[in-house]
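Hello,

Following up on my earlier ticket. Below are the two sequence lines again, exactly as submitted.
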Amino acid sequence: MTPAEPEKNKSPYATMIVLAVVLLVVLLTCVPYLVTIASAEGPAARDTADASPIFGVTIPPGYKQWELIAPAEEAAPLDEFRAVVGNRTAIDAYQAGKLPFPDGTILVKRAWKRKQSPEFASATIPGAATTVQVMVKDSKKYASTGGWGFGRFIGGKPVDEAQHRTCWGCHEARASSRDYVFTRLAP
Amino acid sequence: MTPAEPEKNKSPYATMIVLAVVLLVVLLTCVPYLVTIASAEGPAARDTADASPIFGVTIPPGYKQWELIAPAEEAAPLDEFRAVVGNRTAIDAYQAGKLPFPDGTILVKRAWKRKQSPEFASATIPGAATTVQVMVKDSKKYASTGGWGFGRFIGGKPVDEAQHRTCWGCHEARASSRDYVFTRLAP
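Thanks for your patience. The regenerated structure is below:
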């Protein structure tokens, strides 16, 4: 276009080197972010033996890093603490007060036996971990159970089919007004 | 170097456009990551009226996104749920079983009144939020209190100096074997 400009005499290698450097910077800058996303939300190739009966739900990798939705307590005989955490999709829906939860929502309920604090008579703290319970929203795949797939795990392994048959009936009977989810976002 | 190559005849504007596009991609890709880091860990310019007396500790921005360390319960008359979360430095130290906690560790204890679940007779859930309590490790700044600065907040505002005078004595008396931190990592 302007053949007299001095840039015309530069080597094309200079442009390639600049591009290569820029791409290297992009990669180095973004890799930690991508790794975080992948480990927090990404689908993992998991052994099907680790998937729940009926629903095929697995424990999502990285769920311990997810944001807390609310703690809770179950009285005796269970005598447990619970803490429900959710992936980004879940948290965004909670914060927007959006129902039904969108596909891709995952909720995980951690649970522990309650234990007397050794330092404070008035305090109770987590003892041994007991179950991990997972709800996954996929309105097509789980159309017959309100769009939710369920998984209940002990020691990382799913409990039996009979126990998984009880999930939907209880959520359907008691939490239908809130898209079958009991837990509310703690203020 | 190779004056006969056709690239020599390209406009310099083409190179500039490619660079501009690449830079745009870099920015769009990395901004969410940088925002996450900044909101999760970064120091914030905060009103000093929001800083605790004695220690000058503030509520860290983004703490609700931090990883759960453990839930707990306080019996009546407090009758509260607690959930302690920590920044990345705190979680890494907990997972490594590393004591004392390194400088930069921040622990935040959220608290709520306990409330009967409307759906389950056996379940107790969070009611109104009560206090937010913060511990910040800075071994130089807080050398006279075990390296810890303390903040106790109600409705986002620090409580009075008299209450803040009680923090260190209790942590020193009861948790000296664990760098003055009561909360253990939930299994």
